[in-house]
Design brief:
Elements lengths: L4 E2 L5 E4 L5 E3 H22 L7 H27 L2 H6 L14 H19 L3 H26 L21 E2 L11 H14 L6 H8 L3 H8 L8 H23 L6 H18 L16 H22 L9 H6 L3
Parallel strand pairs: 1-4
Antiparallel strand pairs: 2-3
Helix pairs in contact: 1-2, 1-5, 2-4, 4-5, 5-9, 5-10, 6-7, 6-8, 9-10, 10-11
């Protein structure tokens, strides 16, 4: 019997009641900050960047709160959730339900590190070069959290039918029935299939809720839901694993002026995000811009930012590497 994986992961690690509990989404961010701290601290110990190891803890904490969390949430509100939040302002506070923009988080870190470097009187590109090595770790865990939440699913796999045949890695996401974009025909077919298994199901919301609790309903929806790319995992691999590997190798194997690595991050993230968006279903209700999805359009500006960092770095070269003893000495002030 052929069957795709029908998403059924719970967003809760521990659930105390219907709406309250410990979420995997929040845990993913905590884990990202812990691992990010360890990597940044290790780079500082090896002599990379202007920050001393003892400064890394405070820096990462402030970057997490002022850069990632604040920037990521504001970015989501501005770029994706403006209509929702303007109609219901309290939605802006519901971080446990997701709603973070990676572009917003990156811009938040951009401005946070600028202010931090000025206050601490250290090199802004020097601080940033280590931070961008850490950034893909957060992107990786964030995309895994998206997958656990069953959100930001992929486009429909061409030629794949709900009951097969099709590629084994294709997946089906019940939440697409209630999170926007599903046609009335698909919703009706889903309710009909679920009702045949459980006569107590009369609505789309009931069918989706039952799919996460009853394997029979899940199997019934598997005969209706379109097979999709697991875009969350694809983006985790691209924005997380691939980008981190490239940046780590450049940081530890090559001697480049401060700012080059930051520029490579912006360019690399933009390129990989544009590729990843080809597998991701565009956000429902958000129009295309110049034929690009919102994520692709926002990424195009990052090419310019990255190029600016690289040009500036080579025009005014300064090094923060283990073999740059003069610079390492000046960074302890």
């Amino acid at each position: 019997m052929f069957a795709y994986y029908v998403h059924s992961l719970s967003p809760f690690i521990v659930r105390f009641n219907e709406r309250f509990g410990l979420h995997w989404y929040g845990f993913a961010y905590v884990l990202a900050f812990v691992v990010g701290y360890w990597v940044y601290h290790r780079l500082a110990q090896r002599g990379y960047g202007p920050l001393r190891p003892a400064q890394v803890g405070d820096f990462i904490t402030l970057a997490a709160v002022c850069g990632v969390m604040l920037g990521g949430r504001l970015g989501w509100i501005i770029f994706y959730g403006w209509e929702k939040v303007s109609a219901h302002p309290l939605e802006a506070l519901k971080l446990w339900e997701g709603g973070m923009s990676s572009h917003g988080g990156i811009l938040g870190l951009f401005f946070f590190t600028l202010v931090y470097a000025r206050i601490m009187r250290v090199s802004w590109p020097g601080v940033g070069d280590n931070l961008v090595v850490v950034a893909p770790i957060g992107l990786f865990f964030g995309r895994l959290a998206n997958f656990v939440n069953g959100e930001l699913w992929g486009r429909i796999v061409p030629g794949a039918a709900p009951a097969g045949p099709g590629p084994w890695w294709a997946m089906q996401f019940p939440k697409e029935l209630v999170d926007g974009g599903a046609t009335p025909e698909l919703q009706t077919a889903a309710v009909t299939a679920a009702h045949a298994v459980d006569p107590q199901i009369f609505s789309v919301a009931d069918a989706v809720a039952a799919a996460y609790a009853d394997p029979r309903v899940r199997a019934a929806l598997g005969n209706v839901l379109p097979p999709r790319y697991p875009s969350q995992l694809i983006e985790a691999a691209l924005e997380g694993v691939v980008l981190f590997t490239v940046l780590w190798l450049i940081r530890t194997r090559l001697r480049t002026p401060a700012g080059v690595l930051t520029g490579v991050f912006f360019i690399g993230y933009a390129a990989l995000r544009i590729v990843g968006e080809k597998f991701r279903e565009p956000d429902f209700g958000i129009p295309f811009t110049l034929g690009l999805t919102r994520g692709q359009f926002l990424s195009t500006f990052m090419f310019l930012i990255g190029a600016g960092f690289i040009v500036y770095a080579y025009l005014r070269p300064r090094y923060f590497t283990p073999d740059s003893t003069s610079v390492a000495a000046s960074s302890t002030r």
